[in-house]
Amino acid sequence: MKDALYGGVNAAVLTAMNADLSINLDAMAKHCHWLLANGCNGLGVLGTTGEANNFGLHERKQILEGLVARGVPAAKMMPGTGCPSITDTVELTIHARELGCRGVLLLPPFYYKAPSDDGLFAYFSEVVKRVGGGIALYLYHFPQQSAVPFSLDLIDRLTTAFPGVIKGVKDSSGDYANMKAMVDRFASRGFEVYSGSDEFLQQILAEGGAGCITAAGNANSHWGGIVYAKRTGPEADAAQAMLTATRRAATSAPLIPNLREVIARSSGDKGWLNIRPPHLPLAPAAAETAWQAWVATGAIPLPGFATKQAAE
């Protein structure tokens, strides 16, 4: 897809924390800069991997403001702003717009289960009306986590009612047939489809999708950048194979603590192991197993990491 606002590789960025579980903005900004220098076209901050729902509204604003103040380009960030509350979603979305973000990622209202498409349409219609334009809204389809899926018919209604405002979707379902159905049905409207699964990057680009927004991108973005730049051919195929292998390594243990372990060991900064409950760090044996799964892929040491992040 041409002219996608976040076209390419977007890491679902980890949120760095101090020992007291406050936000470590310096470490997070440094990681963001490294990602943008090593294969990422954009940054999905404050999503599932960033533990957004473990932070209050004032903290979420603090994170976004702190990253911008530390030189992370607002236009490169797609922050998660979707909350069960309409007013919270609107407040965070307007805040992101005021800082210069071009788009935000919206979870559905996820507390009440099995809402109707009519109810979800009413919720998003209210968000669009209250935000008032000036920022693109991306839907976050992750039914395993939210238990509230976006049906194709609902996306059809939203894109018809709000063309150019409901701009795209991150599909973290792992169901490629669903991703392709979204591309086939809505890409002609300029609707951007992003895979939440690294193993589908090359395939979805070929089908007309916009790229990916992925957790493993915290560590494998170098190879994602190659796939996006080359698309086809031996180099792209080899890079896609690495994306697939590292995705499997990332999911060989609970995803968020797994990635924190990889970044902590790669950087020598144990602060990356800090994580808010109910998540917990990996136990020592599990941490070593996860690390060795990454080593076995050939991705370790991470390209450019020691010189561009840990050495700073």
Topology:
Blueprint: E1 8-12, H1 25-37, E2 42-44, H2 57-69, H3 86-99, E3 103-106, H4 117-131, E4 136-141, H5 143-146, H6 152-161, E5 166-171, H7 176-186, E6 192-195, H8 201-207, E7 211-214, H9 217-230, H10 234-250, H11 255-267, H12 284-297, H13 305-310
Parallel strand pairs: 1-2, 1-7, 3-4, 4-5, 5-6, 6-7
Explain what this protein looks like in three dimensions.
The protein has 312 residues and is α/β, with parallel strands linked by helices. It has a single domain, classed as TIM Barrel, CATH 3.20.20. Helix content is 48%, strand content 10%. It has helices spanning 25-37, 57-69, 86-99, 117-131, 143-146, 152-161, 176-186, 201-207, 217-230, 234-250, 255-267, 284-297, 305-310; strands spanning 8-12, 42-44, 103-106, 136-141, 166-171, 192-195, 211-214. It has a 7-stranded parallel beta sheet. Strand 6 (192-195), helix 8 and strand 7 form a beta-alpha-beta unit. Helix 3 (86-99) packs across helix 4. It is globular and about 50 Å long. The chain starts with 7 loop residues before the first strand and ends with a helix. The model has no long low-confidence stretch (mean pLDDT 96).
